[in-house]
Amino acid sequence: MSSLPVPDHDALTAVSTGYGLGLTPEEVGEYHPAVTGLLASWDVVAELYEAEAPAVPQREWSRPDRADNPYNAWYVRTSITESSSGPLAGRTVAVKDNTAVAGVPMTNGSATLEGFVPDTDATIVRRLLDAGATIAGKAVCEDLCFSGASITANTGDVENPWDPTRTAGGSSSGSGALVAAGIVDMATGGDQGGSIRIPAANCGLVGHKPTWGLVPYTGAFPIEFTIDHVGPITRTVGDAALMLSVIAGRDGHDPRQPSDLEVADYLGALGQDARGLRVGVLREGFGLAESEQEVDDTVRAATRALADAGLDVRDVSVPWHLHGPKIWDVIATEGATSQMIETSGYGLNWKGLYDPELMHHYGAQWAADPTAFSRTVKFVLLAGRYSLDTTHGRHYGMARNLAPKLAAAYDAALADVDVLVLPTLPQRATVRPDRDGPVLDTLGRALEMLANTAPFDVTGHPACSVPAGLAGGLPVGMMIVGRQFDDATVLRVAHAFEQAVGGFPAPTGAPAAMA
Q1: Where is the Amidase domain (predicted)?
Q2: Is 195 a catalytic residue?
Q3: Catalytic-role residue among 147, 150, 171, 172
Q4: Ramachandran region of residue 252, left (φ > 0), alpha (ψ -120 to 50) or beta?
Q5: What does the alpha-carbon distance between residue 201 and residue 205 come to, in Å, rounded to a whole number?
Q6: pLDDT tens digit sequence for 277-315
Q7: H-helix segments, 7-51
Q8: Would you put residue 227 in left (φ > 0), alpha (ψ -120 to 50) or beta?
Q9: Given 195, 245, 387, 465, which residue is catalytic?
């Protein structure tokens, strides 16, 4: 039984000193019996919980060596199939290593979680298996998922199949590389600042960030409750719609999900004619300080292809889009400091399914060696702890109160059009820097691409990245954004574009035969 050690006098004195309670040794002694009496309840809760603990399934897994791990994209390999029928029968799926597959190691890309083995499948993993999918392994992700480039995972950089010197994007870096190379049919991703859409854009794939709450986050390692999303990364829009149809819907364990949630037939929606749908080209998504002209030009050309396919394409303006990244900065930085680090990933004060063993394992491990955090996480902690100590969450509260205004600005534009389109990222995949180089180089590469993606994590609108074309031999992503819970229309427009251009290109020379 995982009992709580009884605190001695010195332990309570340390707590008093830490909070500045000003208790004398005698006063600490007076509190001691009351505290130890209260803490007896912790042992009762542990006994009750452990009596209900599920048996951990025995599943085979292996760590691939570099020769069998193209692009360094696998964390572990598996072959888990539990049904021979269903809409995903015969299809292989890589699960991002922030998401639990019971009996299989999970690190969330970080040494701070090394050695953890979950005892329960994440909801989306259970749904994929029930639908006939084969879980082919855990895909590498960035350290605690806090990087938009494939340069921070504790297993090393993930390479881009289009150009191995460049980033595959993050934080779902291995998921993007494995699907782009044709090693798996599809993969799961997580998205708090763009981490489904960024690797999709860099690797020439379809990456769909669902409406916040459409897909249960249960069993995935959280960063910040209000911006957590999971969703599909695939080669085609049809596969994204199929996978979304499997994983969407309430599970009763995730309070991110509304009680009246309705799931559409996302695959069936692709059969509806998209001609006449109104497409708003978001002016503020172009011409950013970090934008490459080739990217803007490629996405503009893609919007003309939509017009040629019979969609009603027009320019729209949402000035608040330019404020979105700053609002995200505050929420993600203070929120992640509090939840992802200081309260062991899951945070407190929400009614959902927790993973107590993960919380204990990770919390004890990072506290024992905080130097193991990546540069990006250290950056977040320096800024986040300073701001929380200085203004005590005031700016987090401001940012959360501004989030509805940001959402309303997009909603106002979406009252006149069916979707918004803009570049997914301002630039193409960049060259991966030296891990031991200057800190600012690492931080720049890890966070430089978030301007267009991060605002929609704050607001929760559905957003899908599709390959707009190639520029200089590298993929460019176009992002399609829709009304809340109208993921079907987003995918319809994405599918119309895919049909208009005759499908999406794949990198040459990818070792798909090594699957």
Answers
A1: 79-491
A2: yes
A3: 171
A4: left
A5: 6
A6: 999 999 999 999 999 999 999 999 999 999 999 999 999
A7: 9-19, 25-51
A8: alpha
A9: 195
